[in-house]
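Project channel, design review

CF: Before we commit to the Algoriphagus namhaensis constructs, I'd like one complete example in the thread so the newer folks can see what an input/output pair looks like. Taking ABC transporter permease.
RD: sounds good, go ahead.
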Amino acid sequence: MNLSFFIANRLSFKKAGGFSATIHTIAIASLAMGLGLSILAFMILGGFQNTVSERVFGFTGHYQVQRYTMSNAFEETPSSLQSNFYQNYKQLPFISKIQTYANKAALMKGESEVEGVLMKGVSQDFDTAFFSQYLIEGRMLTIPDEGTSNELMVSKYLANKLQLEVGERVTLYFVQNPPRYRRVEVVGIFETYLENFDQKIVLGELQTIRNLNAWTTDQIGGIEIYVDESQTEEIQREKIEEILDADLKLVQSKQKYYEIFDWLVLLDTNVYVFVGLIGFVAVFNMGAILFILIMERTQMIGILKGLGARDKQIRSVFLWNGFRILMRGLIIGNVIGLGIGFLQDQFKFIPLDPASYYMSYVPIDWNWPVFLTLNAGITLLTLLVILIPVLVISKVDPIKSIRFD
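CF: and here is what came back for ABC transporter permease:
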């Protein structure tokens, strides 16, 4: 058996008593808590960013194609389903789906209050299966092949404010000249927790907006584009613009709702600072604790040197000891971080205030490359820090150290 490994094994915290055992335990706990909290921080950050992004993209798509207009009026300038983009978008494999829509400003009258809203008209290509996750009462819209069903979906915020329930009929007064109105039935209530949408938008039928604006059946307000991540955003924009008509423009949701996405990017900085501080404390503690262990074993170092052991062999003893502490800390830290993340992902026992955080519970993202990077980074930094106190061994004088008390 390797002599350095044998001695390091005899010095392990299970076989050492008193002060040494306490020092070993503190070192392991410091590393484990640092790694565990770092993993949880990135889990929560990724889950939070993904959840908010998915809610925004689910409501608007990753991109919107709209008609160029020089007007600042509420009315949209219609585009056509005969456009070159609509006829050829399937050539781009990264586009997973598209949805046609139109928007129209209106006043919605409840029993005692009136609220300004933006009616988003959707058609049969609307992904009801995806949006149903936000449905909390009632059902999704029924969009007939011909004509309109005069159905409406409202947010929980608007339903509470206007005292609306599923099955009630409500009047929408549309902003146009001359003003027009429609009586519609509330068939569903949704909640996305995003105030940009819940406080403003109601879902109706695209054909209703066509009838109000005197559009033909092939005219729409715009197209929402949903993409996968097989291409970078820059390449996606370039390829979409290559088949885009000259009178159409491409709007990216991240730019349209920049205040939300800038806020998500800002969270990255907070987490990096937090993880950096935790990592620094954990790694610094590891170096300090190993230095204390070396000082505690000064007499042993002197005896080994007196018996002819080389500095390299003695350093290996403490390197093995430090490596054992590191491995135990990593294992326990991963169990803590991944274990708590798994429990939260399955049982959602940590709630959040939706009004402040846009979701009702702490979300979890399983980003394995990040977890592996954290483990590798802490391992590398710890091994580098371990080398600093170990170098002190070469300066220990055997005679003085044997008499060291």
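RD: helpful, thanks. The radius of gyration is 32 Å.
CF: The longest helix spans residues 19-60.
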